[in-house]
Amino acid sequence: MNKKTRKTFSKFKENVDLHDINELIEMGLKKEEISRELGISQKYIKKILNDYYKDY
Q: How far apart are CA 22 and CA 11, in angstroms?
């Protein structure tokens, strides 16, 4: 019987940082549209934005 491998969050094609997300927000995109555009989950976007607003 084959063991299933764990899925990791490192399957992004390129690194995504706050500047990329900020540019898309300034363009008027919502979190759902940003997640589709960058290929990442909405929870990850929400976490990044919460951390950003918490720090600043």
A: 22
Q: How many Å from the N-terminal Cα to the C-terminal Cα in the chain? A: 50
DSSP tag of 27: T
pTM of the model: 0.63
What is the distance between the alpha carbons of residues 15 and 44, in angstroms, rounded to a whole number? Answer: 13
10 confidence band (pLDDT: 50, 70, 90)? very low
What is each CA distance from 8 to 12, 21, 31, 53, in whole angstroms?
10, 21, 21, 26
Handedness of CA 21, 49, 15, 9 (dihedral sign): negative
**Three-class SS of residue 21?**
helix
Q: In whole angstroms, what is the distance from residue 37 CA to residue 56 CA?
A: 26
